[in-house]
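Journal club prep, notes for RB
We'll compare a predicted complex against what the paper describes. Inputs for the uridine-5'-diphosphate case:
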Amino acid sequence: MKLIYEGKAKKIYDDFKTVKGQPTVIMEFKDSLTAFNAQKKGQFSQKGQLNLKFSQKVFEMLSEKGVAHHVVEVLDQNRIRVLKLKMLPVEVVVRNKTAGSLAQRLGFAEGIQLKKPLVEFYLKNDTLQDPLLTENQIETLEIMTFDEIKAAQVLALKINLELLQFFNHVGVDLIDFKIEMGKDESSKLYLADEITPDSCRLWDQKTQEKLDKDVFRRDLGDVGEAYKKIAQKIGIEI
Ligand code: ADP
Ligand code: UDP
């Protein structure tokens, strides 16, 4: 097995296998936790396996609702096999309420309900700290085609609808989240990467308690406990 990439939260290995003619890679979830473009670093024990289980549960739910995702199989507590995709070079953020960079940049309080979900694109570039992109920039700079932009928006909004229901069912508000997408060799678009408390804002509807990475970003308490709490709410025990 060859390590081909080590990111902030995961490692990617190539074991040169294919599934139905499509190349796959192995994705390992690490126990590390970073924020502010990796300027702040942390970790907690079993974080990797908790995030793997969390993402897997959410991806399985989405799959039942007709969303194609990259996971082929779970190999062990920290590793999954996924389709090796050509990733769109953007992070797609969907927001239902104001929070984080949107609230900060535009001077809004957090937690204001948006009149409709907002889909945003950020260029995946750590050196530039993932800058916000307009649709016009994406198309004109040929970062993605017009059709790719529209397909990514449709997929992101569909995922948002399903996630809103899924978390609402357990008394949790989905404030916003980030997803990544990729294409296989036939240009089919898949949900890729992960959906975890690292990549979502999740607030307890009764207490407004934050059950996501903001606990770490903002030093709000024990991040491991927050992740365990949200995992338990969706039926995951570690
Ligand atoms: P980062 O790169 O931001 O530090 P991670 O540590 O989560 O993030 O690394 C995972 C990397 O794997 C990301 O660059 C992501 O774009 C990429 N990736 C996710 N899913 C796939 C996939 N199915 N095929 C190829 N690359 C993927
Ligand atoms: N997000 C992410 N990775 C990033 C940036 C954002 O997973 O590199 C998620 C973040 O957890 C939140 C949503 O995307 O759920 C919107 O994040 P925002 O733009 O508010 O940025 P932040 O202030 O959190 O960096």
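Talking point for the session: Helices lie at 47-64, 100-106, 135-140, 146-168, 214-217, 223-233.
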